[in-house]
Specification:
Strand content: 5-15%
Radius of gyration: 25 Å
Number of domains: 2
CATH architecture of the largest domain: Orthogonal Bundle
Shape: elongated
Strand order of the largest sheet: 1-2-3-4-5
Number of strands: 5
CATH class of the largest domain: Mainly Alpha
Helix content: 55-70%
Bound molecules: fe (ii) ion
Number of helices: 14
Distance between the termini: 82 Å
Order of helices and strands: HHHHHHHHHHHEEHEHEHE
Length: 341
Amino acid sequence: MSTDKNVFSDDDAHITELVKAKEALKLQRAVLKTMAELVEFRDGVTGGHIERTRGYLGVLLGALMKKGIYADEVDTWDIWLVLNSAQLHDIGKIAIKDSILRNAEKLSEEEFEEVKSHATFGESIIEKIEKGSDEQEFLHYAKILAATHHEKWDGSGYPRGLKGYEIPLLGRLMAIADVYDALISVRPYKKAFSHYKAVEIIREGSGIQFEPALVDVFLEVSDDFDKIAKDYELSQGEIDMKIDKIQTGEKTVLKIGGRLDSFTASEFQKTLINGFDDARHVELDCDELIYISSAGVRAMLSAEQRAEEAGGSFSLVNVCDEIMEVFDMTGFSDILNITRR
Ligand SMILES: [Fe+2]
């Protein structure tokens, strides 16, 4: 071991610096997490939105990095910080009135203007925190994300109406993540769209709302978006499928509600098949069905087969347009006996 005093003091300084850096990182994480929770708490409808959008952004960034798209810019980013800053994109919502944030009706023009102000509010909140700190790097991404995630490629977005490449790359990416999640989520004023429908809407928005090159990337990795949304649900135990049985003579009507995916597919299949224990004709009322997976379709095909074996019938009634579209796209509308809503 060296007894050179200078070496010791250099080491000490180095270690002190590392400890300091580690502490700073810990503090940054804690600040980001607390701020994100504040947003989540304030905006009653977001349930999981923050966590999922961070996941989607990660998927898009991963695809960009693999393909080397925008490599010059992305290579300079601190990816950990970008993804954690993404949690703050809606922080400006803490300044919006509860009565507006949780309004189940369609918003008036004036109320919508107030909602729109969350982008500039968010930017100024982050700016204020920045001014009180020596660390300027830390909230740099959060500020860009908060300020620009509602801008649109054609210049019709808000708050600044930035157009095309005037919108920072981070904002152009976040726009896709944010819109996808809004589409597949239930909002006080709308039902959830299926993954397929959400993908279609984003495809149609290419060159209008979103940058075409980024939509192309999204289309390639959209299955991963779907997976994130489902994984989140599984982790939250939010899957909620209920089937009520109504017996009328020879016919059993199974009224189905909630979301349906592989997690509950076997249970669903069992319920459908059991329907034939009581009757030869089973009708599945899909009025409240808002999502369906391939496992769900397979369960329905089994029920169809069971009906054939029993010399009875299996039909779906009250099927909404979004689910109908899934059946049309997969060709199952030709096999299953379906009545539209
Ligand atoms: Fe927003």
